[in-house]
Design goal:
- This protein has helices at residues 9-73, 91-112, 118-147, 151-179.
- It is mostly helical and 181 residues long.
- Helix 1 (9-73) runs parallel beside helix 3, helix 2 (91-112) runs antiparallel to helix 3 and helix 3 runs antiparallel to helix 4 (151-179).
- The chain is elongated and about 105 Å long.
- It starts with 8 loop residues before the first helix and ends with a helix.
Length: 181
């Protein structure tokens, strides 16, 4: 073994300093490698769980807002005693509904562009079917009735069809979102 007792004090101190610097460099390298692996793992978790979960949560929020737009549109019924308090046109509600519907479609395309496993595919398919029913039989029928001035039909859709189809679509979205939780 290397015996430092035969060397002068300056040489011994220098050798110890070099040895400590070497081990410090080794520790820094190990720490940097661990940080890099941690960063990669964090990015993977974000891409696989957080990002799709956030998309589904945003979709749910927009779906809920659309449901409320039909109810708020009913307040424009001329027979409603507070209708004159609504100073904006009915189209403010229906245009927001269309905008939200289109944003949901774009978000869903973004969601579907990811590689989905079998369970995700099953949950996503269930959501797509439930949402299609909600949009086709609830939202669009209610919107069209509002725009046609048929507030009675819009009210019927809002009280009979939308709650049921929204509940099914909401449950399917909850199931999908919970997959990412």
């Amino acid at each position: 073994m290397f015996d430092l007792r035969n060397y002068r004090i300056g040489t011994r101190l220098f050798a110890q300093a070099v040895s400590m610097a070497f081990w410090f460099a080794v520790l820094v390298f190990i720490a940097m490698s661990a940080m890099q692996r941690l960063q990669q793992t964090t990015e993977a978790v974000y891409a696989e769980k957080m990002e799709p979960g956030a998309i589904v949560l945003r979709v749910q929020s927009l779906m809920n807002e659309n449901r409320l737009m039909i109810a708020q549109g009913l307040q424009h019924d001329p027979s409603y005693r507070y209708a004159d308090m609504h100073t904006h046109p009915l189209t403010a509600h229906t245009e927001l509904l269309n905008k939200n519907r289109d944003e949901i479609t774009d978000l869903w395309k973004q969601f579907k562009n990811r590689k989905l496993n079998a369970e995700e595919e099953l949950l996503a398919s269930a959501y797509e079917q439930a949402r299609a029913l909600f949009v086709r039989e609830g939202l669009m029928v209610g919107r069209d009735a509002l725009l046609a001035g048929d507030f009675q039909k819009a009210a019927e859709v809002n009280t009979k069809i939308i709650p049921e189809t929204f509940a099914k679509a909401g449950k399917a979205a909850d199931d999908l979102r919970n997959y990412y939780a």
